[in-house]
Amino acid sequence: MTHKPVFLLGLLLGVFGADTDNTESVRVMLGDPVTLHTDLSTVRRDDHIVWVFGPDSPHNQIAELMKWSYMLSIYVSGKMPFRDALQLNHQTGSLTIKNTRSEHSGPYTLTMTHDRKTSRKRFDVVVHAPLSVPIISADSSQNSSTASERSAGPACVLMCSVTNASRATLSFFKGSDLVSSVSGSDSSGSLSLPLDVEYDDGNRYSCVVNNSISNHSTLLNISDLCQPPPAASDDSLLFCLLLIPVALTVTAVILCVWRKHRKTEEEEPDENC
Questions:
Q1: What's the CA angle centered on 125, arms 121 and 131, to 5 degrees?
Q2: Burial letters for 193-223: b for 16+ Cβ neighbours within 10 Å, e otherwise?
Q3: Contacts of 28 (CB under 8 A, 6+ apart)
Q4: With a threshold of 0.70, does the pTM exceed it?
Q5: pLDDT-based confidence at 236, cuts 50/70/90?
Q6: Number of separate helices (H) and strands (E) present in the chain
Q7: pLDDT for res 37
Q8: How many C-beta atoms lie closer than 10 Å to residue 14's C-beta?
Q9: Alpha-carbon distance 174 to 29, whole Å?
Q10: How far is it, in rounded angstroms, from Cα 267 to Cα 5?
Q11: Spatial CA neighbour of 215 closest among 170, 157, 259, 174
């Protein structure tokens, strides 16, 4: 016989005394199944098992199992967000979410009563979206500065970005050493992290995104992303170097003409004499 029995959790806790609390952290990839275990090998006679999602209240009950001598009463919620997603094991009372979605993240409370003794176990479930591979690009807004402005700052500014980064951490590493990192919240959809490098930096850099169940990394090739611009100061110096011999030549010519002209004037007779 299968029906929804009256929820007796509050009464059972009040009558049968204190419970013992512990919390288990559960991480699962979006779309994968996850099972919350009761740790029972088999449901015993007079066992009462209750599953609650969210605040521990009768209104948040999502599954229940009660066993008597010859009868077993089972209830599984058909309401959203658990419609067609829950499966209750009749032998152990463990609860399986068959196709996890982001709405299934949250606290779950298991209450088990047997022989007038009540125990309680809590699960903190987090459903992670698949992480994308981080992308490293040159930050054009920072790298478009003039040569004079660059002389006072980093030669090249890079940006590492990643999407689907809720509950994830984005980090830059130099070899195995952490350079900088930023973490996403439950609601953040993307993360970005800048990195300042010199054009001739020979270190090995990588950008890594990770959460509690997966990670991706991208290696940085500085020569591909950071092309040193023509140095205006070098061009000016080259121009000056080329101009010096020209100026010296012109000066020499002028002196030569002036001396020749003066010598000619000295050799001509004075008509007034």
A1: 160
A2: bebebeeebeeebbbbbebeeeeeebebebe
A3: 34, 100, 125, 126, 127, 128, 213
A4: no
A5: low
A6: 5, 16
A7: 96
A8: 9
A9: 29
A10: 136
A11: 170
